[in-house]
Amino acid sequence: MSEQQVRRTILDDPDFKELSRQKNRISLVLTVVILVVYFTYMLLIAFSKSALSAPVANGTLGIPIGIGVIILAWVLTGIYVRWANTQYDALVEKVKQKISE
Amino acid sequence: MTTTIGQPNSVAISFFFIFVLITLGITYWAARKTRTTSQFYAADRSISGLQNGLALAGDYMSAASFLGIAGLVATGGYDGLIYSIGYLVGWPIVMFLIAEPLRNLGKYTFADVVAYRLQVRPIRTTAAIGSIVTVIIYLIAQMVGAGSLIKLMFGLPYEVALVVVGALMIAYVLFGGMLATTWVQIIKAVLLLGGATLLTLMTLAHFGFSYSNLFAAVGNLKDGGKLLEPGASSKIATSSWDVLSLAIGLMFGTAGLPHILMRFYTVPNAKEARKSVFYATGFIGYFYILTFTIGFGAAALVSKSYLAPLDKGGKTSNMAAPLLAEILGGHMFLGFITAVAFATILAVVAGLTLAGASALSHDIYVGVVRHGESAENEEVKVAKVATIALGVCAVLFGLLFKEVNVAFMVGLAFAVAASANFPALLLSITWRKYTTSGAVASMLTGLIVSVVLIILSPTVWEDVFQKGVAKDLIHHAPFPMKNPALISMLAAFAVGIVVSLMTKDQVAEDKFDEEILRAYVGVGAE
């Protein structure tokens, strides 16, 4: 088989299709989550300052929410790494083996 | 109590010399491992995920974020946190959309990825221009910041400070390449995180380890209530749309910074690349929580301890963290924090210089001038010449733009990165019908629109021009927002998509399958 044919076979392979489908989906979902969280936060700052100014523990509600956005951003990268290290890499290995065959 | 900041501090100078000795020692060690292009640009892809995570953090946490954000929180309160969050949320975007395909498809620069299936010469030329403009703007910000900070902290003349910084950064990059740069960044990240942790713990200890007590102390200040309120300072934006535009620039700028993107080539594979983003996000997020605490600590303690309170946005606001260190830890601790700030600057400018040099040598010289064919040692030689040239330029620009506002330049660099670099990078790895013309048009649009809108914005128009001769002629800036990214990034995407739909690039379309396979599976990755 020529290199091009090998590529065609792999691209049509159900394992590769599953791999790219999963990867696209998780990237998209996590990107949407961080975009929604961040832009909601920024829109609150822009359009509804008073909600974030509610007093909490001598500070304001905006403080725990802001720190929460930072922590959530990190947790999301953690979720992605965990998924990729376990499920994604296993699928990648499977596809790589098919290529070398 | 009066401060000793501005007088030569023997502790700071000793710490600084120890840092310089250790990093030059590392450079000497790295020099023997810096012969090939892969060694010079990418440390032979020998850096682990954790090491790269620290180095990314070291590359990203500039003195502007340590001293600048602490100062912004100390004088502007909560709004300093808005910047921190914006800088941080770019990292998940890098992780989910960019890091792995970038690692799998490229060799040394992000232009490698954009040029993967498009026509090499036009793409490399425009991508390199975008990289170099971003790098130079960011470099000016760092050099000007460095000169003023060192002057303020050590009492060293501005010009001398610039030459010291310039000479050291050239030495690291020229002799030690990416390996030395990486270790300078790792050491700096550890020092900065350690120093900031210590300063935070001392601040919290002063308030009985209770944030509630800290906020109460801030709230009791004159106008202190305002400091705790989100969006109370009008400095960051002119309108709600402007806030949105700022958000876009901060978030997507990170994913377009050449010196950050370049670091993904230093790890052996995509798996280590993704791990390094996870570590970097954790370190940087933790650091921003520290600077937030330090800023409020400074607000509560510094103005009480010194006669003159911190001025808004002026030079002393940058000194919030060092002043707090002096109050809480005395002369010794002030010396340590000052030396850490100096080390911070060195690590960032070294990373920037290397990224700029690689765009000049790998993209322009080898990719465009030599049509991709050049001997290893010739390319390294050109990269080294580019390093010296950029280093000298950085010092000269630093002298020339002495009065420029550092925060404004950093904002501009992020806006250009988000508009010129990021859309082209993202579309090239995700869209089959992306064409060479579309990519070139998109990169140029992003670059030109972001720069022009900044020039027409109130920041430049009213703050700079109105002070000059044209005072009576100019009343309002032609463009009402301070942050251009909302328009410039969307324009770059729109132009990229429209021009691609109007043109056809059969080679690029045919090669998309190969690109996808390599991006997802890593087959054939360098």
CATH class descriptor name of chain B: Mainly Alpha
Mind telling me which CATH architecture of chain B this is?
Up-down Bundle
- Using only C-alpha atoms, the radius of gyration of chain A works out to 21 Å
Question: In percent, how helical is the residue content of chain A?
Answer: over 70%
Notable characteristics:
heterodimer; A: 101 residues; mainly alpha; two-stranded antiparallel sheet; 4 helices; 2 strands; 86% helix; B: 526 residues; Sodium/glucose cotransporter; 0% strand; globular
3D architecture notes:
The complex is a heterodimer of chains A (101) and B (526). Chain A is mainly alpha-helical. Chain A has one domain (3-100). Chain A has 4 helices and 2 strands. Chain A has helices at residues 3-12, 14-47, 49-52, 62-100; strands spanning 55-56, 59-60. In chain A, a hairpin with a 2-residue loop joins strand 1 (55-56) and strand 2 (59-60). In chain A, helix 2 runs antiparallel to helix 4. The termini of chain A are close together. Chain B has 526 residues and is an all-alpha fold. Chain B has one domain (10-402): Up-down Bundle (Sodium/glucose cotransporter), CATH 1.20.1730.10. At the A-B interface, helix 1, helix 2, strand 2 and helix 4 of A face helix 5, helix 9, helix 11, helix 13 and helix 20 of B.
Give the topology.
The complex is a heterodimer of chains A (101) and B (526).
Chain A: H1 3-12, H2 14-47, H3 49-52, E1 55-56, E2 59-60, H4 62-100
Chain B: H1 10-31, H2 37-42, H3 49-60, H4 63-76, H5 79-105, H6 110-114, H7 120-154, H8 158-206, H9 211-219, H10 224-227, H11 240-253, H12 258-262, H13 270-305, H14 320-369, H15 376-400, H16 406-430, H17 436-455, H18 458-465, H19 485-502, H20 506-521
